[in-house]
Amino acid sequence: MSGSRVVALGHHQPERVLTNADLEKMVDTNDEWIRQRTGISTRRIAAPTETVADMASEAGAKALAASGLAPSDIGQVIVATCSAIDRSPSTAARVAARLSIPSAVVFDLNNACAGFCTALATADHTIRAGAAQHALVIGAEKMSDLVDWTDRSSCILLGDGAGAAVVSASPEAQIGPATWGSDPTRANAVRLVDDWQPRFAQEGQAVFRWATSELPAIAAQACARAGIEVTDLAAVVTHQANLRIIEAMTKRLGLRDDVVIARDVVESGNTSAASVPLALSKMAERGELPSGRPVLLFAFGGGLSWAGQVITAP
Ligand code: UT7
């Protein structure tokens, strides 16, 4: 056994759709500004009683069912989240209980929006080390709990949801080496402010400039580490923060014209650690993910942190 691969995907989004027109009634904003500056048209908002663990469990159950594995096969459950307010037991422990996964190591991982790609690399390393054969890796967020609904600069951005992947040992390494790191000089550029209750805040323009200037080279490094050229990529799923960042970054990467690019931010908004697996799973569900071909996953956010890798599409 020399590596691991993603064998199945799943996702969950809450029922409630919050449109730009809805937001126009809540804060001083308008559909044109939101679409021009962010590309976002809608986002999903969880019900007051719907928790991060609920969404993570729904997504995880779908991925597990699609994998054909039994709950007892899963040796590790990692949930990437920064919005699970009820922190103990961990969200991963709650997922294991819900899905009757009997004896896995379970833990949450907080690397903000880069959490899922970080968790995927962690599962890959665990499997390579022989400490598990199969892992359930989930990104799940209820960002609506962290939104200041009076702040027009941030409340229009965020949404809720979850995406999951089952990762299994494989003779062929189909999860490439992680490209990951952080820039401590910008540690507070995206953060949770905790004065009256935790709420999302960011230096939007500074993050935008950093993302569009720094990320293409870092993403290209993920391809180099996987031993492929950027032009070999069949699909790109980056953190869904802003359509303008996605367009600028993918343009600068110099991709082939037929590459499938995730643009789930348009309908789901920014779901932090859930955004990459959610977009990836939705692509697979629509039949857009080119099976057996290289897909770049890449995310960035609070820290400022980044993480990404090239995987082979399941
Ligand atoms: O997931 C974590 C990683 N985060 C990111 O990737 C975020 C990166 N940054 C961004 O995506 C963009 O900076 C934002 C979408 C957050 C903001 O877009 P922007 O083009 O940077 O706008 P801005 O903050 O510079 O604001 C421009 C104007 C301001 O008005 P004045 O000062 O020019 O009169 C804002 O007050 O737009 C105003 N504004 C709004 N107007 C209507 C800010 N929010 C809104 C709004 N509706 N919702």
Automatic annotation (TrEMBL):
Q: Name one Pfam family in it.
A: ACP_syn_III
Q: Name one GO cellular component term.
A: cytoplasm
Q: Which GO terms describe its molecular function?
A: 3-oxoacyl-[acyl-carrier-protein] synthase activity; beta-ketoacyl-acyl-carrier-protein synthase III activity
Where are the annotated segments for ACP-binding? 240-244
Q: What InterPro entries has UniProt attached to this entry?
A: ACP_syn_III_C, ACP_syn_III_N, FabH, Thiolase-like
Ranges where the Beta-ketoacyl-[acyl-carrier-protein] synthase III N-terminal domain occurs: 107-184
Cross-referenced Gene3D superfamilies: 3.40.47.10
Q: Which UniProt keywords apply?
A: Acyltransferase, Cytoplasm, Fatty acid biosynthesis, Fatty acid metabolism, Lipid biosynthesis, Lipid metabolism, Multifunctional enzyme, Transferase
Pathways involved: Lipid metabolism; fatty acid biosynthesis
CDD domains from the UniProt entry: KAS_III
Q: What's an example Gene Ontology biological process for this entry?
A: secondary metabolite biosynthetic process
Q: Which reaction does it catalyse?
A: malonyl-[ACP] + acetyl-CoA + H(+) = 3-oxobutanoyl-[ACP] + CO2 + CoA
| Enzyme Commission numbers on file | 2.3.1.180
Q: Which domain of life is it from?
A: Bacteria
- Domain (Beta-ketoacyl-[acyl-carrier-protein] synthase III C-terminal) ranges: 223-312
Q: Could you give the subunit structure recorded for this chain?
A: Homodimer.
| Name of the molecule in the record | Beta-ketoacyl-[acyl-carrier-protein] synthase III
What is the organism of origin for this protein?
Answer: Lentzea albidocapillata
Classification from the root reads:
Bacteria, Bacillati, Actinomycetota, Actinomycetes, Pseudonocardiales
